[in-house]
Amino acid sequence: MKxxxxxxxxxxxxxxxxxxxxxxxxxxxxxxxxAVPDLNNLLLLAHKYDDGTFNHHTLFEYVEADLIQRLRGxxxxxxxxxxxxxxxxxxxxxxxxxxEIAELLYLSHIKNHLRLPFYRKLNNRFAYLSHxxxxxxxxxxRSFDDFYSILGEVIAGKLxxxxxxxxxxxxKKKRDIPSIPKEVLYPFIEDMKExxxxxxxxxxxxxxxxxxxxxxxxxxxNMDEMYEEYSENQNLPVxxxxxxxxxAKEWRAFVK
Length: 256
Prior knowledge:
alpha+beta
C-alpha cells in the first residue's frame, strides 16, 4: 500500500450530502484542527493516545479543549484507526444512553453510522473517522459550510507550509496565501459529489498567479484504487482550476 508520505501533494474529496459525510485523502488531523481552533472537547472512540481523561459512564477517554494542542502534536498516522466526536460539556457524557454509546462504538468500529451521528446532548459539529491519518478519512459534518471553510484553509496551508527553510513560493517561512473563501469552492460542489482530486503538486506558479488543477475521477472508498485512477487522469485536460491572483490577493474558481 502506498503511504501518504510518498505523495503528500493531492487532496481527494467525495461528498455525500444525503448522509452528511465527506470521504477524503490528504488532509491530516493537525491540518483539520488548525482550521477549527474553536472546538471544545474530543471524545476519543478509537485511538492510541496516552494522556486522555477517562469517563466512567461511557468507558471512553476524552481530551479537554485546553489539551487538544498536545494531541495535535501526536504522530496520528501510527495510531492506525483514529476516531472521535466533539462535545461541549463532560456532564453530557454522563447522560448518554446505552443505545447512544452502542451507536458510537459501531461508528468507530465499522466507520459507518446506525443513525446520523449528531447528538443533542453532545451538540457536536463533527464525527471524525480516520485510518492512518490522512490516508483515509470519513468525517460527518453537521454543517457543510464547516467543510468548505476547512478545505479552503487546508489548501492554503499546504501551499504555504515550509519545505526545508523555504515555502512553496521560495520565501522564508511566511504564510503569504490567504485561505480560500468557501464561496469560491461552491462551484465545485457537483464535482465533489462525483469525487475529485485537487493536485497541490501539479500547481503552476507564475509571477502574477498560482493555478491549482482539479480532476473529477469518481467515487472511491479504496484509496489505492483512487490513486490508480488519478495516475491515469493526471495527464488529461483538467476539469477545473483554483487560481490565486497574487497582486489582488484573491482566489477564483474555473469549472469546465
